[in-house]
Recover the amino acids of this structure.
DNA sequence: GTGAAAGCGCTAACAC
DNA sequence: GTGTTAGCGCTTTCAC
């Protein structure tokens, strides 16, 4: 039989009210009864029923994480770190795959609000604008991770894509490359920012941007990237280095080069973005730009917990800085 | 302001009980009032408060998934498929990383029972025997996935590791290999089963098992496997084919071979297990044994939902059959 | 300092 | 067929 607050009260010879006060550290209770009650709680291993207290308007200590696809290594990592830090703070996290489908997004949000989750972390993609706006209007605790809505008053944690694009390109420039291509994901803020960083780096180096070398792709798969990269490599304008705006795109590019018999890094340097595990198992190992995923997950959870607990209405935008990870796929320009 | 069942009752001119009955499809209600109430619910977009009904002993429609590490691609896939099917059945899933730590396992289970989850799916590793036994004794709904406890009365969904080991080995045999090594994970049932399948296949082919070719490893990382594989390849007994009992181990083996200048698949065939995404990005692409992860996740969720809803005490052990996926890392024995 | 009473939103017996 | 009553386990006035 499950213990209730009344059982503890009876055992301690006090009322349930008093026990409740002790548990929640409220009101004035004498040290003596307080200690006694605490001891009994300990002894009986009493655990308050979260449901009942939530019904009275308290927290459920449960948050929801919405991600497009749990099997994608990047999202899986967010999940991992958010959950781990949430655990420390006493939050459980329910995971929701949206598949990028606005209907599913709405369904999840409705259902989980019904279940009284304390807040949401939304990762990378969220298409259902009305639902998002409503949530924000109601001041429901939300944090975006790796997703920006500059026009909406909502807290977020992102990697600095502009800077990431800049340092990736700068790295290639420092190796002597001048003709540098880029393959980016279409219609995403992060993709656009990375391109901007790329252009800025070229500009700073006094190189005019050649739009023929800027490729965008709306199907960010290895295969899709391979096709596009092949086109680029086969054009008259073959670059000596390519910046793939995520590791998937970079790996597709590697496959394309290999297929054409172009040596990496002798004839073509390639750099990716995200620094996923894949970088280490391709050949040659892929240089990449690392965003501090661990830190991002933690900060997002932290931010959300603050909004939930303190009800402080503060919304922050945190941008974390990327780092260059140099491996074997980038090398000095090989002048013939 | 949140709507309650009373608001609906008032609107319909009936009692809350009647509304409750309509929602839960219980008792006898006239078609007329039923329709009226349904319509009002629809119109007002009324959503019953899950907390309140759970407090009365009903389901929370929330289950928990315990996995060692959400960032591991295999577990991430379980998660994905469990969540997706759970969604269809109306269950939310809360994700818990245990990191293989018995204390964390216990902590999660206690906390989540406090939050009244309806059941648990436990994946791959669970070390806290007492907690597991207690859960089973209490008839708390649990399903194990990719984890066996033959001695415990608990439902489970696993891939058939024995058969998997058998067909991987058989594939190598069919290519003419006779000296076949195996690298397996130590102290896991799945590892042991895969080794058994391997031995059986050799036996059936009339080949005596050479224990020098059977390597076990307790740190299943690429690096760890690389070291062990190097030892094996450098021994006088160099095999012409190696079965890595998961893709990580197989990839470690690939790296070892490359490091030693041994050509794959000309001089050494390698096959993995699990058919992860990594198979397609290594070079040459890795042949592997695919377990139907998608199906496993779905079945586990299905099983659990049945136990939760029907309270039928039936426990099943489901074993799903693996399939061979041939890529470029395995080839006919190259006789010199 | 402490407790009695009311009620969060829902469901289950039982009466009518 | 439908409503009344009681209560799940907790928290919160407010009185003592």
């Amino acid at each position: 039989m499950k213990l209730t607050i009344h059982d503890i009260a009876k055992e301690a010879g006090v009322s349930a009210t008093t026990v409740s006060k002790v548990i929640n550290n409220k009101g004035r209770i004498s040290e003596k009864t307080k200690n006694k009650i605490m001891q009994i709680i300990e002894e009986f291993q009493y655990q308050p029923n979260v449901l009942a207290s939530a019904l009275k308007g308290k927290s459920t200590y449960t948050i929801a994480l919405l991600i497009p696809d749990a099997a994608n290594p990047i999202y899986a990592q967010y999940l991992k770190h958010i959950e781990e830090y949430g655990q420390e703070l006493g939050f459980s996290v329910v995971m929701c795959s949206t598949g990028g489908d606005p209907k599913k997004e709405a369904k999840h949000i409705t259902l989980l609000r019904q279940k009284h989750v304390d807040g949401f972390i939304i990762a990378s993609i969220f298409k259902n604008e009305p639902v998002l706006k409503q949530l924000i209007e109601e001041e429901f605790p939300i944090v975006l991770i790796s997703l920006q809505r500059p026009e909406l008053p909502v807290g977020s944690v992102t990697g600095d894509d502009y800077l990431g694009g800049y340092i990736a390109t700068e790295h290639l420039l420092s190796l002597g490359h001048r003709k540098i291509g880029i393959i980016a994901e279409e219609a995403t803020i992060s993709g656009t920012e990375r391109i901007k960083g790329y252009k800025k780096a070229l500009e700073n180096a006094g190189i005019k941007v050649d739009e023929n070398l800027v490729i965008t792709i709306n199907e960010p798969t290895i295969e899709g990237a391979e096709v596009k990269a092949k086109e680029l490599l086969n054009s008259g304008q073959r670059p000596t280095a390519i910046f793939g705006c995520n590791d998937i795109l970079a790996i597709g590019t590697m496959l394309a080069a290999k297929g054409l018999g172009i040596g990496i890094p002798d004839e073509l340097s390639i750099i990716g973005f995200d620094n996923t595990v894949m970088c280490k198992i391709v050949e040659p190992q892929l240089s990449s730009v690392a965003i501090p995923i661990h830190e991002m997950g933690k900060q997002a959870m932290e931010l959300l917990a603050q909004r939930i607990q303190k009800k402080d209405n503060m919304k922050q935008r945190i941008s974390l800085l990327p780092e260059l990870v140099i491996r074997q796929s980038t090398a000095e320009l090989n002048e013939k």
User: Anything to note?
Assistant: The two ends of chain A are 82 Å apart (CA to CA).
